[in-house]
């Protein structure tokens, strides 16, 4: 037995890449947790014929559940409900009680917009009447914003959710708990999923190890392994039914044997999580040039970061390096702003200025301009300085464009920080 | 006549959301520029049956061109080439010349990895031999990384590209210029596309205006309009054939008439572009608390930002606000760190410390903790201070979770900056 699902993401703005889809990945995670096999995500614009073609495709490959996101808004290009109804062979009817509920929701929202050009209430209510049109026999999920969701039973069952992630996410829990959805995914299998993360190993090196595992591990074929190189980190995700846990243990042993120094996480923890744990009881400051605040922002992504994050200086200009971090102008003149001595002086300055016991400095050439034969675009110098005087300094040459180099720089800095704090 | 295309994105790591797909949106833009209609993007894992089902679906809906991304790597889960070959009914053959070329590419790459655990050259070359397997009759596109691309002629023609964006993007230009690809898209139509951006108008207010346009503009039906609310900004993208330009001009006139103060861009320019232009000849510094560097990093996203970006202070802790920005401790004690007086003092401090003529300060409660009845999570105070003593100060209550609030804060700050500098 198993249960398979497909996700249909609608919206011309998503299809054309003007906004990135966050719902497909989020729903994929939820399905994985449930043990439902996600087979396909399909994206199309706000065209009924294209939406319907995707629904038919997914029904044709035999999924048990389809989840749609988007196309529930008040504008005329929002056509998901009527398309799903047609696909399911159901009439669309006005739900007057739901219409009244939406009207209640709109009142306070409209109060926020006033002045010339603001829409009047009656007009808005009319535009939102279409959000109260429901396929016969469908279960209505209460609006989080103004758009209700739907569960339309059938073969496959279709769960219709709004596009904005902050509306879709709270609605999902209610949708999947409906008897119709539970019945659709009744055949789901429980899987285990484990993640190992490495830093500093090429993907082909891992391929070699996995080939070895294929020969040395008896139940290797029961492990569904996917590998992914991202921002210099190699992620190995393995999914297996619970009784194949022994094979997975053998795989982990093999990885440890061959790549001990490169593995930084065996429990799925990100380098951000590890660094956050290592920073407990410490006080950290950053000094950033080319990344211009991205590292500080990344540290602050963790809720509760105020326990250990003092702050940072974005010393984009040389003057800022001198005035705010106390970097000696002579050092910049002699070695250049992108150099290990300057990175070290920046880190030392951050320690001092913030009264911190941990500091990270980044100075580099992100391009597109500013490269030289000696220091091409992608040259980035890092320093981690600790309160006891220890320093860990590195220079790397990072690939990619301006955005890649800056983002990758934050990852290198996180790993340097992890190393410096792990050997404490 | 028209030409339609579909994109097949493969990779279990993309399907399961572990990495975000950047290729679908990027290819969507390229197709749009060419006047090729993108009908569907489909995403599946590294399973040949699912990849083939998607290829058949796209062929079934009649697209002229399919572009695949991913699944060209050396690992055993990379199966796109053989699946495409089967779909096209072509044999797969070893291209020995290509194999030699890949071997040459690998040599210097391998030199970067040394020490225990590093893969030996012969193993890697064997793992990469499969990258030299080519469907009979296909045109080979030279590798940018180690994976070659392919153009496989047929109905539809299939362009096979590698997954990493930095390999896919340079290869695309060569792919689309091949005679096989040109023939597939011969029926393309030239479209115009224009974008209007607004800030501070609800989507339903726009819906009302568009309904009005439907009645008042004769050729309204010839405009393909999509609207999208993103980070508080409303984006209206309109596509039309060149001879419907008059209808578009009428639409823009209508938008101006009804929402003059809310329109900030009529040429597709982002607020980031506008702010970058307004900052020419100025010298800006940031002072950030909850956003912790995201605004400085966003300013630095623009190549050439060093012409106007002095730097910034991430004053995450109260001490940092006092020590690095000179905020009076008494002010924090009296009004709280999240308050307009503190935002103003932070901006003034940034002006002073960086010798800047423009400064932006952000201080807010991003959550999940730290909210109070008076200042709930989402309360954010902003101040733009200019060298002539003028200040623009605002407090907003932003919706969403920690990440939403922080990101939205940078957008509000950009618009405040735009307003302050526009009225100069």
Automatic annotation (TrEMBL), chains A, B:
Annotated MoaB/Mog domain residues: 6-183
Family annotation (SUPFAM superfamilies): CinA-like, Molybdenum cofactor biosynthesis proteins
InterPro entries for this protein: CinA (IPR050101), CinA-like_C (IPR036653), CinA_C (IPR008136), Competence-induced_CinA (IPR008135), MoaB/Mog-like_dom_sf (IPR036425), MoaB/Mog_dom (IPR001453)
CDD domains assigned to the protein according to its UniProt record, in alphabetical order: cinA
Family named by the database record: Belongs to the CinA family.
Record-linked PANTHER family: NICOTINAMIDE-NUCLEOTIDE AMIDOHYDROLASE PNCC (PTHR13939), NMN AMIDOHYDROLASE-LIKE PROTEIN YFAY (PTHR13939:SF0)
Protein name in UniProt: CinA-like protein
Phylogenetic classification of the source organism: Bacteria, Bacillati, Actinomycetota, Actinomycetes, Mycobacteriales
